[in-house]
Specification:
single chain, about 625 residues, alpha+beta, SH3 type barrels
């Protein structure tokens, strides 16, 4: 087996996939080693191409993922620890061997091993007699038949697999030597990450981006081309390593005495994947970086739908190690130092470094350490930032400044319209937020205050309100100048107009008067609504009268029931007769009053209905006019 081609290129993707390319000359077949967990990706992606040489790829072979000890046990080749020779000779019973000693050799068929105390002798059947060979003097054993040789080769192979641990081997079988073989495949890898250093220098910023990469394979990588890409191509896991067997129907033996076996209609089964064949076509192309590592940054480029950093120069990654590689080093001008504050956060505003990404690279999300005046100043998180996009990084607090906000909410009806069945009010809801900022420092400061934008609100523009200089999807931003050792108080306002339907029966005269005074209503509409309200008020008064009459009616009925029951037990003579006469008179009076109540309820109900009809008529007249 010859030396495998070395890794020449490594591409690390953002979703934890590593693409590797190997290139080099080989003298013939070679082995590639992988972790067991990598085999599914390898079997899915492994490609081999002959770049230079009149040879072919004959096969790509690997051991099935069975337990080596179980395999040896099934073939009766499991040898006891410390007695490998004895175990091997016991396996070879009945087979011809030649045992070598210092005095020569003895051949024969193995009968077994005789053990007497500490002495062990090989028992052979030779030319019609039994020969005993002291194993203490045996220096070697040769097996005469091919089957035993194959068994020993299998034993050695599976024993090698048993001691390989997590390592798995794929053998690339070539028909001969080649000057240049290309191999490519993917394996799972730690996600590459990026961290930033931000060195502030007046209105300029030195931005340094460093990629953090891990060696994804169990071998040293020396002088490779390294590419870090933001791409996340579709990828998935599928078990190609373990064998898959299709369940088949079980058919009982046929009793041939009763006739021939029945013929069943054929049925399809899921196809079993064919054995791996050698890839054909051109070998994978190796992309040249075409530049010498300059010690400052990687080459940034767009490739299709993704962005990648090609690290300049050769990169080396030792086995089991990680490395920090330079991705971006750039001086950005036009940087700004800002102070931002949002209600709900701590009183101190954030100190923010603001700049535009004028580099040639897309900035991946990652932690940032900020240095100012040659000293550590704080930390921030860089968001994903496209080229040319603005960045704001909050890295600290300004303890010399304190901010607070005091919102006030109010609602006022701005318009009233008579609607069909209800009054439509246009209500303006206002929020006025007073912002108070105290600057205890020695320098004048500008503080940018962000107020959240409530849904469907508009900024108020009256003279007493400060104007926003910028709006995002969720915030309005206000610039507030605060001189040293001073305080600034400003008010920002927003409003929202909504419509509210109110039943005419719920309107109050005072509300009408207020709307008229504020010119929300004109006089004609006011008079019309006043008439409607008077009719509704009168109807409500009549409804109250009806309620009182019905209460009296119920009381009378209950009293009549009581008197009727009393009359059932009173006699006509004596004192009971006098009580009876009084009860009868009372009962007659109650009945008369009940009849009067019935009539009054009917009349009053009709009057209330007439008032409501009059209200509807007045409302209809007001609507048409």
């Amino acid at each position: 087996m010859t030396t495998r081609p070395e890794v020449t290129r490594l591409v690390l993707f953002k979703h934890g996939i590593a693409y590797l390319e190997r290139r080099g000359a080989t003298e013939g077949s070679f082995d590639l080693t992988f972790r067991a967990s990598e085999m599914n990706d390898v079997l899915k992606s492994l490609a081999v191409g002959i770049v230079d040489g009149a040879v072919t790829v004959e096969s790509l072979d690997y051991a099935a993922p069975s337990d080596p000890d179980d395999d040896l046990e099934r073939r009766n080749l499991s040898l006891p620890t410390g007695d490998a020779l004895i175990g091997l000779l016991r396996v070879a019973r009945g087979r011809t061997v030649e045992a070598f000693t210092g005095a020569g050799s003895t051949s024969g068929e193995v009968i077994g091993v005789q053990e007497d105390n500490d002495r062990r002798q090989l028992v052979l059947w030779t030319s019609g007699r039994v020969e005993l060979v002291d194993l203490a003097g045996v220096t070697g054993v040769r097996f005469a038949d091919d089957q035993t040789g194959d068994d020993i080769s299998y034993l050695v192979d599976r024993s090698r697999a048993a001691t390989a641990g997590d390592t798995r081997t794929v053998t690339v079988a070539l028909s001969g030597p080649s000057h240049d073989v290309a191999v490519s495949y993917i394996v799972q890898a730690p996600v590459w990450r990026v961290s930033y250093r931000l060195i502030c220098d007046g209105d300029a910023i030195d931005l340094v981006a460093v990629g953090i990469v891990h060696n994804p394979i169990d071998e040293d990588l020396d002088g490779i081309d390294l590419t870090l890409t933001t791409g996340r191509p579709s990828s998935f896991e599928i078990d190609l390593y373990r064998d898959r067997r299709v369940a088949r129907a079980t058919v009982d033996d046929v009793d041939y005495e009763t006739g021939p076996p029945p013929i069943y209609q054929s049925f399809g089964v899921e196809a079993v994947p064919a054995a791996m064949s050698a890839p054909t076509g051109a070998a994978p192309k190796t992309r040249s970086l075409g530049a010498v590592f300059d010690g400052r940054s990687a080459e940034a480029a767009e490739v299709g739908e993704q962005f990648e950093y090609r690290v300049r120069g050769a990169v080396s990654l030792k086995r089991g190690m990680a490395s920090m590689v330079p991705l971006v080093t750039a001086r950005l001008t036009g940087a700004r130092r800002e102070r931002f504050w949002r209600p709900g956060s701590s009183p101190e505003p954030d100190i923010v470094a603001a700049f535009d990404n004028s580099t040639d690279a897309v900035l991946e999300a990652g932690p940032v350490v900020v240095y100012d005046e040659n000293s550590y100043a704080g930390e921030a998180m860089m968001p994903f930032t496209a080229r040319g996009a603005g960045v704001r990084l909050a890295f600290g607090k300004d303890p010399a400044i304190t901010c607070r906000s005091m919102p006030r909410h109010s609602s006022v009806t701005t318009r009233v319209r008579i609607g069909d069945g209800a009054l439509l009010q246009e209500v303006r809801s206002e929020t006025a937020t007073t912002i108070a900022i105290v600057n205890k420092g020695d320098a004048d400061r500008e503080v940018i205050v962000e107020l959240p934008i409530t849904d469907q609100t508009t900024a108020m523009t009256a003279d007493e309100y400060i104007s926003a200089y910028e709006e995002t999807d969720v915030y309005r931003r206000y610039r507030i100048d605060v001189p040293a050792h001073s305080r600034a108080d400003v008010t920002a306002g927003e409003y929202r107009v909504a419509e509210r339907w109110t039943s005419y029966t719920d309107i109050r005269h005072q509300a009408l008067a207020d709307w008229l005074a504020r010119s929300v209503l004109d006089r004609a509409t006011f008079d019309a609504l006043q008439a409607v309200l008077r009719h509704h008020d009168k109807a409500a008064e009549l409804d109250a009268v009806v309620d009182d009459l019905r209460s009296e009616y119920d009381h009378n009925i209950a009293e009549q029931d009581r008197l009727t029951k009393q009359l059932d037990v009173l006699r006509n003579e004596g004192s009971e007769g006098r009580v009876r006469e009084s009860a009868v008179a009372r009962l007659v009076a109650l009945q008369q009053r009940t009849d009067e109540i019935d009539a009054a309820v009917a009349a009053t109900t009709a009057d209330a209905a007439a008032e409501r009809a009059a209200a509807d008529s007045a409302l209809a007249d007001a609507t048409t006019t």
